[in-house]
Amino acid sequence: MRLSLPSVGSWRRWPSDVLGLWRSSLEFRTIAITVILSGIAVTVIGASISISIGNNVYDQRRAQIESESQRATVLAQGIFDSATSSEDNNQVELDSLQNQAQSAILSSTSSPGGTSIAILRTPGQSTSQTIQNIASPDFPNSSISREMRSAVARDSDRLHFQPVSLTTSAGRAPGIAVGSTLQVPTAGQYELYLVYDLSDAQKTLDFMKQTLAIGSIALVLLIAVITYVVVRLVVAPIRQAAETSQLIAAGHLEERIPEAGRDVVATLGRSFNGMADVMQRQIEQLAHLSRMQQMFVSDVSHELRTPLTTIRLAGDVLYGNRGDFDPVSHRTAELLHTQIDRFEMLLADLLEISRFDAGAVELETEPVPFVSLVTDSLAEFEPLAAEAGSTITLNARGGFFEAEADPRRLRRILRNLVGNAIEHGEGRPITVTIDSDADAVAIAVDDHGVGLRAEHAERVFDRFWRADPSRRRTIGGTGLGLSISREDAILHGGQLEVASELGVGTRFVLTLPRRRGVTITSSPIALAVPQPGVDTEGGPA
C-alpha cells in the first residue's frame, strides 16, 4: 500500500479552500469562531493561573529561605561569640569555630535542591588575627556580584537577596543567593553567603505549566466537540430547510420539511410547510390560468383565421372594384383593406406570443451575413421612410459581420425597430449601425424624434403599451412588435436594450452572440443616445 503525499499545489490552495469553506459552511464558521474564542480565553486564564501560582511558589520559597538564612546567621554568630579571649589559643579556636559554624549552617538548612555556603572576609580590614575564606566545593563564586558584596558589607543589619543561575548536572537551574555579616572576635567582619538551588520549585512550576497546557488543549478540543454536536443539532434542520427550498425553487412543489416536536425548529418547519402549501396552490393556480390564457389566445387566433380568410376574399374583391364606387364607398373599401392587413398581422403576432408563452418556439439558425440582411431589410422601408420625410443611413463597422442566427426572426426584429424609428422619428434622419467583435454582433437603430422619459423607456417592451395613447399609428403596428423582438433576441441568447432622451431621440441596441450557445458579457455598441452631430463612436458625424 503506497501513501500519496499532498502535492505542492494542493498545499498552496488550502488558504483559498479554507476561505471558501468559511463562506459556505455555517457549521465550520461557528465551530471555528467558538474554538478560537475559547482558545483565547483558555490561554488568558491559563497564563494568569500560571503567573499567579509561580509568584506564590516563589514567595513561599523565598520566605522559607529568608527564615532559614536568618536562623543560620544567628546560629553561626552564636558559635563565633563563644570564642575565648586568650590570644594564644584564639587562632586555633577560631579555625575550629569556623568549621563548626559551617557544619551547623549546612545542617540547619533544608533546601531540597541543596545549599552552598561561603564565609568570606570583608575587604579593607586590618585585624590582629584572621581566618581563611572557606566555601563549599560547588559554591558559584561567579554568581555573587560585586554590587551584592558591597551592599552586604555596607548594610550589615539585614539579609540581602540576589537571583542567580546555577549550573547543575541537568543543565541550568534557578537559585537565590542570600548574604549577611558575621562578627568574628579578634578577626573582624566576615560575610556569610548561602546559595539555595530552586530547581525543585522550577520542576513543580514546569509540571504545573505542562498540566495546564494539556488541560487547556483538552478543554478546547472538548468545547469543539460539544460545539460540533450542538451545531449539528441546530444546523441540520436549517440545512434541510435550505435544501427543501432549493427543490421547491427548482419546481418540486411537493417537497416539505419533516415536522417533529414542539420546539422553535419544529415551529419553523410547520410555518415553512404552510408557506410552501400556499405558494404551491398559488403557483398551480397561476400556471393553470396561464395555460388557459395561452389556450384561449391560441384557439381564438386559430378560430379567427377562418372568418378572416372569408373577410379577406370579400375585402379583396371590394378593393379591386373600388374604382367603380362612389367616393365614400371607395374610401371605405381602402380602409377595410388596410384594417384586414392589420388584423392579420395582429393574429400572427398573437400566435407568436402564445408560442413564446408556451415555450414552443425553436430557432432555425444558419450563418447569416448581417450587412447583407440589414441592407435588404432597409430597402423595404425606404419608400415608407421617404413618405415620412426621413432618410435611413447604414453605418457598418468591425470585421465579424457573420453570425449564427435565425434570418426570419432577425428580419422581423429589424422591421419592428426600423418601423418604430420611422413612426417616432418626426421625419428626421434615421441611422442603423452595425458593429462586432470576436464574440458578438450588435445592431443599433437611432432616431432623433421626441424621445421618451425614463419611466416610459422601461415599458417600451410591454405588450400593447403606448407612451402616448392619443398618438395615431401611421404604419399599422399591433403593439406587440417590440415585445416579440425582445423575445426573439433572448431566444438567440442575446439582448435588446433601449436608451432614450427627451428632445434628442431613442436608440435600440440588439446584441447577438456570433456562435450559438455563447454567453455575451458586453455589446460592441454602447447603449447611449447619440447627440446630434456626433456619430455612434463619439466623433463628429
Salient structural properties:
alpha+beta; Helix Hairpins; Heat Shock Protein 90; five-stranded antiparallel β-sheet; five-stranded mixed β-sheet; rod-shaped; disordered N terminus
Number of helices: 11
Order of the strands making up the biggest sheet = 2-1-5-4-3
Percent range for β-strand residues? 15-25%
Mean pLDDT equals 79
N-to-C terminal Cα separation, in Å?
Answer: 76 Å
Order of helices and strands: HHHEEHEEEHHHEHEEHEEHHEE
Number of strands: 12
Structural class computed from helices and strand pairing: alpha+beta
CATH architecture field of the domain at 363-513 = 2-Layer Sandwich
Q: Please state the CA-atom Rg, rounded to the nearest Å.
A: 52 Å
Return residue spans where pLDDT drops below 50 for at least 5 consecutive residues: 1-5, 536-541
Question: Quick one: biggest sheet?
Answer: 5 strands, antiparallel
CATH homologous superfamily placement of the domain at 363-513: Histidine kinase-like ATPase, C-terminal domain
Helix content, binned percent = 40-55%
CATH fold call of the domain at 363-513: Heat Shock Protein 90
- Return the CATH class of the domain at 363-513: Alpha Beta
Sum up the overall morphology in one term.
rod-shaped
Account of the protein in words:
With 541 residues, the chain is of the alpha+beta class. The chain is built from eleven helices and twelve strands. 23% of the residues are buried.
